[in-house]
Amino acid sequence: MKPDLQNSFVADMQKSQITVRREFDAPKDMVWECYTKSDLLDRWFAPEPFTAQTKSMDFRPGGHWLFAMVSPDGDKHWSRFDYETIDPKDGFTAQDAFSDEDGNINRDMPVSTWEVTFDDRSSRTLVQIVTTYDSPEAVDQVVQMGMEEGIKATLAQLERLLKTMS
Q1: Would you say 21 and 120 are in contact if contact means Cβ atoms under 8 Å apart?
Q2: Which end of the chain is more exposed for a tag (fewer CB within 10 A), N or C?
Q3: Each residue of 98-151: pLDDT tens digit?
Q4: CATH assignment of the domain containing 137
Q5: What is the mean pLDDT of the segment spanning 80-101?
Q6: Residue 134, Cβ neighbours under 10 Å: how many?
Q7: Helices and strands per DSSP (H, E), number in the chain
Q8: In Å, how far are 60, 63, 78, 101, 135 from 155, measured between CA atoms?
Q9: Do the domain assignments include residue 1?
């Protein structure tokens, strides 16, 4: 990552939010495609050595993305994004939850709402992810589970993918 590109992770317990800001040296259209097409998401949306595997995706308001993060030994950890709003190439909101392979949400784990925005910065793109949880305890739980390290490693995968697409 170039040293002048933004890269931050802030947990705000009072607001029950995590805000991630990550700037990429790639055009907005390309970054948007990487967030909205399952074949591209499968190439980056997991921290190494995990990989992502899409079971189904319907990128539209009311649609969902059901996928697994697959460990090197084949264990699958399922998640589900339910898309609420989509503003093409500018952002989307979605509910994010741990699930089973059929998409049934695990209510014993934190559920969050993601607001993802894409800001065109000439030849660069700033992605901001504001993740809102029901409580500060839920934020603490995902932070303790390694959310900061995981999201930074995942976004590093996206950076590598974008370099191959340029």
Answers
A1: no
A2: C
A3: 999 999 999 999 999 999 999 998 889 999 999 999 999 999 999 999 999 999
A4: 3.30.530.20
A5: 98
A6: 12
A7: 4, 8
A8: 23, 24, 19, 24, 25
A9: no
